[in-house]
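Weekly sync notes, structure subgroup
Attendees: PM, AL, DS (notes)

Item 1: joint prediction request from the bench team. They want all two components modeled as one assembly rather than separately. Inputs as received:
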Amino acid sequence: MTHSIEVKDLTLNFGSVSVLKNMNLNVAEGEFVVLLGPSGCGKSTLLNCLAGLLEITDGQIFIKGKNVTWAEPSERGIGMVFQSYALYPQMTVRGNLSFGLKNARVPQAEIDKRVARAAEILQIGPLLDRKPAALSGGQRQRVAIGRALVRDVDVFLFDEPLSNLDAKLRSELRVEIKRLHAQLNNTMVYVTHDQIEALTLADRIAVMRGGIIQQLAAPQEIYNRPANLFVAGFIGSPSMNFLHGATVDGGQAIQLGDVKLSLDGYEGGAVGTRDKVILGLRPEHLVVQDHAEPGRTIAAVVELDEPMGADSLVWLKAAGGQMSVRVPVERRMDAGRQVHLKVDMSKASLFDAGTETRI
Amino acid sequence: MADATLAAPTRAAAVPRGARPKRALSGRNIMIYGTLFVFSVYYLLPLWVMVMTSLKGMPEIRMGNIFAPPVEITFEPWVKAWAEACTGLNCDGLSRGFWNSVQILIPSVILSIVVASVNGYALTFWKFKGSDVFFTILIFGAFIPYQVMLYPIVILLREMGIYGTLWGLVLVHTIFGMPILTLLFRNYFSTIPEELFKAARVDGAGFWAIYAKILMPMSLPIFVVAIILQVTGIWNDFLFGVVYTKPDLYPMTVQLNNIVNSVQGVKEYNVNMAATLLTGLVPLVIYFISGKLFVRGIAAGAVKG
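Output from the run, pasted for the record:
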């Protein structure tokens, strides 16, 4: 499989501020990669570098095997969709779609053909002669996607394309983008801070923080086996429970305050005896039960119950801290009730408290 | 009890609907309209006197009642001011100055706006190393008094061989319009989302294509403001006109001054008034047609500093 996008040792400084640090990223042909991270992590900046809208300080960028490090945005074979749609207000939808093609001196017949095709794929045919001001948010973003589509390029770059839309439209267009990817099968790089978008759309997710990719892996891998404490805490809503403790018995068990859990079944590296570790448990990987099992359960007291429709989130006091557990909504959890939380070690994550990396 | 139930609907019907009516003659209104009236009279009275005097013959003016409307309306002073009044040896009235002004005005307005808008565009979207310093220096230029630069520019124009020509004056107007116009355009362009500019670059538009095809059509209000500022400013200019041109090429304002201040012969007040009104006509007309556009454009340009 050839690489559609190859980023080698990319560094970007704004003055003395280092925004992207020695970054390497390979995107396979037809792959959907999502850049995910909190605001200010450099994800949009990386996308702008790929598009050629920012001059990089050091490193190289290859698109389809061609070194485009210093190429103009229009020469890179990319199409880009922006958060604010960025449609040209004085032009009709047709004008917006054909502007880039006219600049590239594509013959009129070819322009008409491509605009018609994009309009058909995105179902914006009836809107072609309207101005952007006369369109709804969803329609505008569709036109913006169309503008990338008509360019007939292999790489699509999305810069938080759904952030300006309301929740319902967002989920509709999310599905549409996924369908579009399946239909066109071109490479897509998608920037978002919304983990649902990332988890649903991506073939691989790159979780970023402070200009560094923390983990680049398939969504399930990121969710189940986060590479470090930051990824573990960032992905998942409600977020993972973290319990501080130490491994004992030569790495066979973990001591969390006065609770001792067996590490039997933990999927990870050699644990060994460590003074300070953090055990990460997702709320849905804990089972609430009434009886204790030595080495398998944590005693807890119910604090409150948040019904969320399909299930409810129960907050408990356990192992000297607060924990949340997802339970079926039918199970009533009254405050003050004594329960035991059964831990599935095969789905747990163990981090070194010093390096914050997964063990 | 029965009384109460009966009384309730009647009271409900008597409840007033709509906004509370305001008294037309409240103390507040009297104050506001009184002040407005006084100020209108203050500003309109001179105009009234000028128009009336310009329509009178000299004998009627000598009678001294400057506020009275003319007994006998005559347009002769207007004709004389336009075509016959003498300045020095030329006796073709203000018409010569008018055409000089037009010849100065058109290229100055076009040139200064084109250069300043491209400046503002480059300083907003194509930032280069030191562009902020450049902009600061440019803005600083707006605060330097003209008098300081008068003589150096004379030398500069002489060295360039365009001293005393229309083009020399056009150049001076373009340069002096630059700081304020660049600021105006830069502020307006910085309200345009940067993503629009990025999208155009991805679409393969270059420096000039983005300027002409994307930004210009979006920025009509600010161009209107710039045109109004420049037309009125350049038309009303006296100092540069008198310093950088020769008598043959004097703009209308300079010629007006020469007509009004000529010492020989009788003071023809009616001709002077007509000449002044003629000179003020261009800015006046511009304000009348574009007042609304002007306010809208200024407001648009002032949103973000």
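Discussion: The domain at 241-352 of chain A is CATH 2.40.50.140 (OB fold (Dihydrolipoamide Acetyltransferase, E2P)).
Action: AL to compare against the crosslinking data before next sync.
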